Records
---
Amino acid sequence: MSHRHPATISARAGIAEDTAFGAITPPLYLTSTYQLPAFGQPGPYDYSRSNNPTRDILGEALAELEGGAKAIVTNTGMSACLLALQLLTPADTLVIPHDCYGGSYRLFTNLAQKKQAFKLVIVNFQQQDWPEQIKRAAPTMIWLETPSNPLLQITDIAAVCQLAKSLTAKVVVDNTFLSPALQQPLALGADLVVHSTTKFINGHSDVIGGAVICKTQACGDELKWWANCLGLTAGAFDSYLTLRGLRTLTPRLQLQQQNTAEVVAFLQQHPLIGKVYYPGLVDHPGHQIAKRQQSGFGAMCSFELSAPPALLTTFFSNLRYFTLAQSLGGTESLICHPATMTHASMDAAAQATAGIGATLIRVSVGIESAQDLIADLALALDAVAAVQQQ
Ligand SMILES: Cc1ncc(COP(=O)(O)O)c(C=O)c1O
């Protein structure tokens, strides 16, 4: 485990290491292939699908941030998920949470049903009997997403890992919603961490990318082999941009969290807002676990609009600073309707089981002024109230 603070690791990744010209920022190596030193003599790099110096700097920073032996930088978050699943065979059982990201849910269920890639068991980690559900499943791998998307439910990573060890199951944690600046699952006992770096790690909504970070070198080597074999690795330019975004991860998140706390306080007292889902709230069922295993409550929250679904259009169309869009984790605030957007790939029954209703709204809070963000929400809610009174 690195002794360096995440803020230092991020800010210093690859800085002042250029041996050719002393460039402060690491160069962008836009090359598909590399000259051999001589016939029959391999160089450090041969082909950029296998290895690229710019991608390697990002990988080394992510491995250090998560406290892993090795990171594999992939071209999307979904390819990072697919890569981690290469550890499974058709004889193995994968346990997934009932409320994970819709795209991950689509990948798991379709690989299991259409390709028989593994056996799949869905567990509700919010039910008290989750340990019994897991023991019955006898899994090879347990997939966690905490806080979950979109309801910000919290799972006790250390408790799941302890049980997994006794069953010799591997634990994978999708750490996209917090990033290693706020949660380090490997230190809590997990074996792998998966990221959509598209989100907080890059933080500027201009790259799609992912990463898998392995606790052990052996696992890292195996997945690096698969990433090259399947062609899942990220391009140099995307890696360069992501490295640039990563430098400000800690200060961005600090500001985004501060803004989120203020937005949540506003939402909580508004008559047109029903339940607010944010792990920082003392009455959130996962608050105590979040306090223990996270170093902050994050910049995502969800809430129920206390109005008929027909008024969602009025609400969304009256917002100026919360842009209606799928993604999250950027410097700009985004808002989405999980049932028809991020979680549309779940059928109605799966959505109902996951608690995704017609008036659930998810917010990713950016770095704008909290005052402006709150005024924006207030105006949109006033517009909803005005329609209701007609
Ligand atoms: C928690 C989580 N995991 C994985 C993904 C997939 O990442 P990508 O869109 O970068 O492929 C997403 C995307 O929204 C996500 O929210």
Note: The chain has 13 helices and twelve strands.
---
Amino acid sequence: MPKKAAKTPETLGLTERMTQKEAKKWVGLDFATKQPQFEQKHLTEFAFCNFYSFYEEIARWIPDGGTWVEIGLAWGESFRWGVCACLNEGKNVRMVGVDAFPDAWHHNGTPMEQMFHNHMQPFAGHYETIRAESSEAAANFVDGAVDFVFIDANHTAEFVRRDVLAWLPKVKNGGIIAGHDYNAPHEVKQVVDEIFGIKVVPIPSDDFDAEHRPFYSWKVQL
Ligand SMILES: C[S@@+](CC[C@H](N)C(=O)[O-])C[C@H]1O[C@@H](n2cnc3c(N)ncnc32)[C@H](O)[C@@H]1O
């Protein structure tokens, strides 16, 4: 039987780290300022991502061969950046995206799922998706299998609680569970604080509100 080739950057066709110019082209991020380039409207007009630096930090932290799951993909802006950041680190990370991709979400008739894959096209072969309700998708993983999970799906208290409790057992000891929109008016903070208490570390966003205050994501290292 032919030996299965190891999944390395080379066998994936990535002979060298993606250049900053290439990554910038696809992700719409100005590497000098670390700010999204809002003039690249064709890439960023659907973006909800304001945590590019946090994803860079996670890409540096996550072990080679690790597993990264993002819950709530929309058009793929943050997920694409996570995939890109791991490749730039020269790491072979299993990247899994979860979204229900509701049929009602489309852009000029193109379904959200198709838009997502169009945006991810430069990274084809470097990611997987699970089209499912967020908490139910956790059943695809054995306990302790995931290094990093980022929750950015339904932000109401009921769903945040359900997602956190479904995904928490899947994260390994020393792994990180995190999520977006820790700040009001979302109901994320009340649930996350109730479950994790003082273990929660707020993560400031790359952008600011009108009073120059950052928004926040959250993370807990287990
Ligand atoms: C805020 S958007 C994600 C934005 C994306 N992480 C980014 O920064 O570019 C929320 C996404 O979560 C998905 N979603 C919401 N509730 C969900 C659920 N219960 N199960 C699965 N997906 C869900 C929606 O379809 C939507 O694509």
Note: The mean pLDDT is 80.
